Amino acid sequence: MLSLALRLIAFRPLRYFVALLGISVATGLALIQLGIYRGFRENASVLVDNTAGDVWVCGEHHRNFDFPKPLTEQDLDKVRGAPSVAWAYPMLIVFASWKFPDGHTQTVQVVGFDASQTVGGPWRMCAGVPEDLAPPGNISVDIKTRHKLGSPELGAETEIAGIRCRVVALTEGIRSFQGNPIVFTNLDTARAMERLGSDEIHYVIAGLTPGADAKEVLPRLTSIEHVEAYTKGDFALKAQLYWLESTGAGTALAFAALMGLVVGVVVAGQVLYTSTIEHLKEWGTLKAIGATNAQVTMAIVAQAISWALPAHLIAGGLLWLAMNTIEGKGIHPSLDLRTYLLLGLMTVCVCVLASLLSVVRVMQVEPADVFKG
After folding, report:
1. Are the CB atoms for 160 and 202 separated by under 8 Å?
2. Is residue 87 domain-resident?
3. pLDDT digit string (tens) for 159-173?
4. Are residues 32 and 95 in the same domain?
5. Does position 367 have pLDDT exceeding 70, yes or no?
6. Contact 26/323 with Cβ under 8 angstroms?
7. pLDDT single digits (tens) 254-313
8. How many other C-beta atoms lie within 10 A of the C-beta of residue 314?
9. Residue among 245, 244, 227 nearest 55 (CA)
10. Which one, of 30, 5, 16, lies nearest residue 266 by Cα?
11. Rounded to the nearest 10 degrees, how much is the dihedral formed by the CA atoms of 226, 231, 233, 235?
12. What DSSP assignment string belongs to 214-236?
């Protein structure tokens, strides 16, 4: 039956490739929309997800990671003194203007961290190491977004918020949710850019002692006046939900991904149903010479799989093209191999289910009807 299904396809190869293209584009649309949704979520919490530590401490009534409320070095000392806290380091999030030689500016998101400890610093670097950012004025730029900054090379000098800076390190693929380039530097340089006091910080990132239960530690930390504390996972989720829910963009992207899936199902169902109906006499002939309904069904399902697998591979190529086209432009499609393979299984299932709609029509064909007229 498999060989028969392939022969029917080979009988009209042009129709097969046109149908395959339709299913591939529909599947690719669903993959790209889902990838953009995942990329949206990842960018919203990228700094939290990729920073070492178990607990994040922030100012009370915290809503959005990108717009923190100030803490002080005293709060940092209190966190360090809390039971079960092995270490704690500060972080600053600052928005400042990168000044170009001709006078125009570009907003950058500056991450200030303790460069002597690297916690809160860059995690994916293609040039330099986090410790290079310890001297005053030293910064990193990302190779995916540095075109927005005039494509500075290592050693280039610039001005950010009136502070003379020098590019000494390059990161790779570290993006912000808003699309602004992310610049890492030491705490003092970040404070100078925002005109903050010498003891002001925005976040405290804490690591717990081995075996410590975060649920038991959090109440002790929240007992510190004017602060809130979250596990790393909860804090990342909080950052994602703020942008997903408050802006409505998350709902729109999720709906677009769902519509992409619906379009894929409809297109696959239409293509497979039309193909089966066109060969209705052939299927009837098979039943007339003794083929069972189960055998005919297997042949139709084999046809569906012969569309689904190459269609998903082509859709993966469309996703790769989209990822590289949108690269460095803010929100980007993101899909890991495991999810891609899982979606491949779903593509096969969708095509098989769609083919079963046409099986119902084939089952209604009587062998004697083939020889009428």
Report:
1. no
2. yes
3. 999 999 999 999 998
4. no
5. no
6. no
7. 787 777 777 766 776 677 777 777 766 776 777 777 777 777 778 778 877 887 888 888
8. 17
9. 227
10. 30
11. 0
12. HHHHHHHHHTSTTEEEEEHHHHH
Residue 269 domain-assigned (yes or no): yes
The residues, ordered by sequence, that sit 6+ positions from 246 with a Cβ below 8 Å of its Cβ are: none
Taking CA atoms, 156 is separated from 52, 149, 372, in Å, by: 30, 11, 83
Kindly give the interhelix angle for 13-44 and 337-363, rounded to the nearest 10 degrees: 140
Q: Does the residue 236 lie in any domain?
A: no
* Distance in angstroms between the alpha carbons of the first and the last residue of the chain: 27
Non-local CB neighbours of 97 within 8 Å, separated by 6+ positions? 105, 106, 107, 108, 160, 161
Let me know whether 9 and 73 are in one domain: no
Closest CA to 316 of 301, 331, 335: 335
Q: What is the pLDDT of residue 185?
A: 97
pLDDT, tens digit (0-9, with 9 covering 90-100), for 311-358:
888 888 888 887 777 765 556 677 788 888 888 888 888 788 777 777
Structural domain including 175 reads 61-225
Centre a 10 Å sphere on the Cβ of residue 55 and count the other Cβ atoms it contains. Answer: 25
Q: Which token pair is 27?
A: 């599947």
The answer to whether residues 269 and 364 belong to one domain is yes
Q: Please state, as a whole number, how many other Cβ atoms lie within 10 Å of the Cβ of residue 234.
A: 15
Cα–Cα dist 91/254, whole Å: 32
Ramachandran sector of residue 125 (left: φ over 0; alpha: ψ -120 to 50; beta: rest): beta
